[in-house]
Design goal:
Layout lengths: L3 E5 L2 E8 L4 E5 L13 H6 L3 E5 L17 H14 L5 E6 L1 H12 L4 E7 L11 H6 L2 H4 L5 H20 L12 H7 L4 H10 L17 E6 L20 E6 L5 H4 L1 H19 L1
Parallel strand pairs: 3-4, 3-5, 5-6, 6-7, 7-8
Antiparallel strand pairs: 1-2, 2-4
Amino acid sequence: MTPKTIQANGLRFAYLEQGTGPLVLLVHGFPDTAHTWDGVMPALAEAGYRAVAPFTRGYAPTEIPTTEAFDTDTLGQDVLGLIDALGGGPAVVVGHDWGASAAYSAAALGPDRVRLLVTLAIPHPGGIRPTPALVWKLRHFFSLRRKNAHAKLAENDFAYLDELWRRWSPSWKAIPTSETDQVKAAFREPGSAAAACGYYRAQSLRSPESYKLKITVPAVCFAGEHDMIAPRLYEKSRGMFTSSYEVVQVPGGHFMHREHPVPFRTELVRVLREHDAKRV
């Protein structure tokens, strides 16, 4: 599938597209690319949706911003800008990992353009309080924000990326080496790995403005049964939502949609169809 390009929020984004119908924007995380949705997009297209998966800012072949602009609210504005550029909303937004962070922000900042919020692997941060155990699980936040973190990332053919996949999806006993091929290829492009680390450098102790707002659109969170973030933590974020809020437990770890693609996409299509039925 050859990427297309589009201008949104001041950047040139590359994206993959499949199907026609209501827009479903699929936003990837780290360490990943738009290809993480390769098993999901055909199912959405068959179900009657237009599935669009962008490469997020800085991830080749998407443009790298000229300034260090990777904060959460900017990522949320990217999502809203993409929805507008792709024909306008309201759209379904599906986000994994950093894509989930961006999706939460977008839903808070532009509820008129998001009709359904679907997130994977990350509960709304506004409802989570750090514990020593959680900080240890998220220790990559500290290593990836260091100076020259991108150079360390590239050592031994980006072996750290494979280590993160194994750590975050511990029940996936034989992760194919091909799972990280696409992100390694993206990070070999000049500046792309440094941009990906910029997401971590942009984090601060202050909560982004969008995380201070309640989510007013219907939301569904997918929680991997063997993820480093336990499904029970999603209940602690329920207070951040004023509309319907559903937690769907599925097999697998952080990369649940890759580890167990069939049950995940079956549940995703169910969620979309049930939501559409309620709107009729």
